[in-house]
Amino acid sequence: MTTTLFTSCDAVVTCDNAGTVHRNVDMLVTDHQISIIANHIAASELPPNTEIIEASGHFIYPGLINTHHHFFQCFVRNHAHLDWTKYSVIEWLDLIYPLFAKLDEDCFYHSSVAAMGELIKHGCTTAFDHQYNFPKHAGKQLIDRQFDAAEILGMRFHAGRGGNTLPKSEGSTIPDEMCETTDEFINDCERLIDTYHDASPFSMRRVAVAPCQPVNSYIETFKESIALARDKQVLLHSHVGEGESEVIKQRTGMRTVDWCEDIGFVGKDVWLAHCWELNATEIEQLARTQTGVSHCPEPVYLVGAEVTPIPEMQSAGVRIGLGVDGAASNDNSNLMHCIHSAYMLQALVAATHNYPVPDPKTFLHYATRGGADLLHRPELGELGEGKAADLFMLDTRKMEYIGALHDPQSLITKLGISSDVDLTMINGRIVWRNGEFPGLDEHQMVAKAQQHVQRVVYKHL
Ligand SMILES: [Zn+2]
């Protein structure tokens, strides 16, 4: 048994239903769970090897849950000539997909280390990745390598096995090198589920079936995905409502949400990324079918024609979580910063859309409880006895927090924190503390990753 005692925490923000914030408390972690939160826990009564962490001056939050990302895109960040803002979506895809198709197995591993490392530094403890890029030359072990990367960093990892099956010659944007057959895709989903998916509470590894997007796959790919996921009792995910609805309507006579409902790609076991172009009827459809939404605010600044109608979704009862999205449309993997971005976007349009001014606390809730709900993880996203020991800690004794400490629940939303957190714990293990990944050499990891960026990406620019 391992035990860690946090003493004299200034605030423990629980994100429970009542919005409880404990002040000046101790918190005990036993193995992978929070066992006690109390005014005082006597260290003398704990096992002698208990680690004591002095937490006065610190706020503790539930670990953040990222519900949409594309780790591999970390290798193509901050390239001026690949910037979304200069092109139409189709032009941009034609430019960037051939580059994505050059990546090999090592690139997928090291970009996953990069993305998860950055997520952990900013308080994220559960990461979902939508890995839809399977260049033929790179083989089928790409998600296996992501699980390796997650294990090294200690991340709680949900893998989304994505894929595209519609060739460019039939109207997709997918280079032939990245196109798979439906059978290839479904067989590999099944292999990954059988190899890695652990449905038990506190599990560190799960797999979702996640065809990339309706515009770039045959309908059979989606239908077989639904059948497989429901047979194996795993979740389904895809991109919807990010500018493709009229294209789908031209092809099928239905906008994307109708098309999804028609084939059964809706339900409590489905969550969809983006959804910024949904109309009121479509929002009602998602609420009625209990389909979730991963709201990725930062890509909205770059590519969204509309600001996602989050207050309308919330009042309709849509299940909402947050995501950073891939680095091709958001150059950082900082979910804490996305909490602020999501809030600011809604504040921007509140008056013109006749929305109420958004409540900042709600946005922390989306990134914790909301994400846990989308990923079917009731043991995550909340700090309380019996919940997972997934948390992060902010040292508030810093210049940037002066005058801002009276409301810990709104602190992250209002301030927009870009710096690293001071400690991240996942499943009871400290994976980030005082600027270091314990037991790992960050400079060495970065140097290795950069070699592969140089070798594969820079060579083709
Ligand atoms: Zn995406």
Record the SSE blueprint.
Blueprint: E1 3-13, E2 21-30, E3 33-38, E4 51-54, E5 58-62, E6 64-66, H1 89-100, H2 105-121, E7 124-131, H3 142-153, E8 156-161, H4 182-196, E9 205-209, H5 219-232, E10 236-240, H6 245-252, H7 256-263, E11 270-274, H8 280-289, E12 292-295, H9 297-303, H10 310-316, E13 319-322, H11 335-350, H12 360-374, E14 391-395, H13 408-415, E15 423-426, E16 429-433, H14 442-457
Parallel strand pairs: 1-4, 1-5, 6-7, 7-8, 8-9, 10-11, 11-12, 12-13
Antiparallel strand pairs: 1-2, 2-3, 5-14, 14-15, 15-16
Helix pairs in contact: 2-3, 2-14, 4-5, 11-12, 11-13, 12-13
Bound molecules: zinc ion (ZN).
The site of zinc ion has 7 residues, from loops.
Structure description:
With 461 residues, the chain is of the alpha/beta class. The protein has 14 helices and 16 strands. It has helices at 89-100, 105-121, 142-153, 182-196, 219-232, 245-252, 256-263, 280-289, 297-303, 310-316, 335-350, 360-374, 408-415, 442-457, and strands at 3-13, 21-30, 33-38, 51-54, 58-62, 64-66, 124-131, 156-161, 205-209, 236-240, 270-274, 292-295, 319-322, 391-395, 423-426, 429-433. The strands form three sheets. Strands 1, 2, 3, 4, 5, 14, 15 and 16 form an eight-stranded mixed beta sheet that branches. Helix 11 crosses helix 13 (408-415) and helix 12 crosses helix 13 (408-415). The longest helix has 17 residues, at 105-121. The protein is globular. The N and C termini lie far apart (52 Å). Residues 68, 70, 130, 239, 273, 325-326 line the site of zinc ion (ZN).
